[in-house]
Design goal:
Order of helices and strands: EEHEEEHHHEHEH
Strand order of the largest sheet: 5-4-3-6-7
Helix content: 25-40%
Strand content: 15-25%
CATH class of one domain: Alpha Beta
CATH topology of one domain: Nucleotidyltransferase, domain 5
Shape: elongated
Structural class: alpha/beta
Distance between the termini: 80 Å
Radius of gyration: 35 Å
Oligomer: single chain
Length: 214
């Protein structure tokens, strides 16, 4: 609060007249400082801090020594994307080479892109199990049949189900960072639960080079 400080006053020398006392204004800032701290505390306690939006990726343990899949390793509901330069190749299931143990035909690489009928449509068809489950959970959540926590748990369980699509991402030395990021974005839109960036095999690299001529 404002206060008036007395400067002493007194009578003039040699005269009997009294002069008026002059006060010096003084403002006490303590209440204002207290108010500022109270407001700061209020905003800190009532504010919601933004959380970073990230997408979890699954990084499998790196095997010791070179690994070549010849079809003996069972892979369920999986697709492998091979990125090279500005192009995207893929194949479904296990990778089969010539003379594999199962006698399966050699793996053939298919190509896709980021057009309307490209990778988004491909992922939507492949991950239809999760997307249909999630659509049902969305309806239940909107009609308040389930709580938010239950909704998140059910979606998480659907993504981890054996019927859900799993995605492996492999790149060669000339793959662009833009394509990798765009692919991750498309996987997020398609609600893919298991995403694993892994090293490309030599046999896969040879197929990619045969496609690109590089």
């Amino acid at each position: 609060m404002a206060q008036m400080a007395d400067d002493g006053g007194g009578q003039e020398k040699g005269k009997g007249k009294k002069r008026a006392k002059k006060g010096m204004p003084h403002v006490d800032m303590t209440p204002m400082v207290d108010l500022a701290f109270l407001l700061l505390t209020f905003f800190v306690l009532t504010s919601t801090f933004s959380k970073p939006k990230v997408m979890s990726l699954v990084y499998p343990a790196k095997p010791k020594g070179p690994v070549e899949l010849d079809g003996t390793t069972q892979i369920n509901n999986a697709v492998t994307f091979l990125l090279s330069d500005d192009r995207i190749f893929y194949y479904e299931g296990a990778f089969y080479t010539d003379g594999n143990a199962k006698g399966a035909p050699n793996t053939v690489l298919l190509e896709t892109d980021f057009s309307a009928g490209g990778i988004r449509k491909l992922l939507t068809n492949m991950n239809r199990f999760v997307l249909e489950k999630k659509a049902g959970y969305d309806s239940e959540l909107n009609s308040k049949q389930i709580a938010d926590t239950t909704y998140l748990r059910k979606v998480r369980e659907a993504k981890a189900d054996i019927k859900a699509l799993k995605v492996l991402i492999k790149t060669d030395d000339i793959a662009t960072c833009k394509n990798f990021i765009d692919l991750i974005d498309e996987l997020k839109i398609a609600d893919i639960g298991v995403i694993a960036p892994v090293d490309i095999m030599q046999s896969e690299l040879e197929l990619v080079k045969a496609k690109t001529g590089k």
